[in-house]
Amino acid sequence: MRVTLGTDPAVIGIATALNIHDDSVIGKLFKLWAWANQHSNDGLNVPISLKWLDEYLDAPGFCSALSEAGWLVLDDNSISFPNFDRHNSSSAKKRAENTLRQQVSRQSVTQKCDKSVTREEKRREEKITTTDGLGEVPYSIIQARWNEATKAIPRLSAVSRMTDARRRHLQARWGEGQFRDGWQVLFEMVARNTFLAGSKGTFKADFDWLIKNDSNYVKVLEHKYDQHEERAKETLSQMLARKDREDADRG
């Protein structure tokens, strides 16, 4: 899934049409594409009803909105996904990861080595571990995606080094399907939520907080913190209403 999906005009159009948040659209797209990837090799003529899919996504009208955006082709008893490879094929995923891995490699060549890091620590950092046949844990890619998603957010620090503790936590999270399938969406959701980004108080959902256990990131993916955004909007509305009343009293 593209890191810039949240700014795609189609996503914004679907969110507007269904009167839901952009992040909700992204989450439902991810859920839909993950389902399609599990049940189809090419995304063509998948036998399923729109009613079932809308219920599965908990979003009435979602599939019709996708069809209007050109991201879903509807037939009587089946659906097809245009540009299926763009989101789901292993070859496309590998190409994207290889591109990012090359970018990370080029960046590392231009950076000075940290003299405080011992040779043994460097060997540990370069080692890629696996988790029960689930494949490599892409530490460098995860680090680069986090830094890219949060680079404009002052209170969310960049991950400058993948420490042993971070590697242990990521290896544990990689064994959890919800994290393994949704970590890219997760980072974008944090960056787009002012409460999680630390703009509302002392709390911030930094990298270490997200990966340290099996519940923190799940709360973010399930929109548990969206209420803080709504509370902030309500508070602002109340404040503006109060100022209007005060101006009227003075007049």
Structure write-up:
There is one protein chain. This protein has 251 residues and is mostly helical. It folds into 2 domains: 85 residues, Arc Repressor Mutant, subunit A, CATH 1.10.10; 138 residues, no CATH class. It is 61% helix and 2% strand. The chain has 13 helices and 2 strands, in the order H-H-H-H-E-E-H-H-H-H-H-H-H-H-H. A two-stranded antiparallel ribbon has the order 1-2. A hairpin with a 4-residue loop joins strand 1 and strand 2. The longest helix has 25 residues. It is flat and about 60 Å long.
Cα-to-Cα separation, first versus last residue? 55 Å
Count all strands and give the number.
2
Give start-end ranges of low-pLDDT stretches. 125-132, 231-236
Helical percentage: 55-70%
- Count every helix, treating DSSP H or I runs of 4 or more residues as helices: 13
Tell me the series of helices and strands, N- to C-terminal: HHHHEEHHHHHHHHH
Provide the fold topology.
Blueprint: H1 9-18, H2 22-39, H3 50-57, H4 62-69, E1 73-74, E2 79-80, H5 84-88, H6 90-110, H7 119-126, H8 139-149, H9 164-174, H10 177-192, H11 207-211, H12 216-221, H13 226-250
Antiparallel strand pairs: 1-2
Helix pairs in contact: 1-2, 1-4, 2-10, 8-10
Outline:
By secondary structure, the chain is mainly alpha-helical.
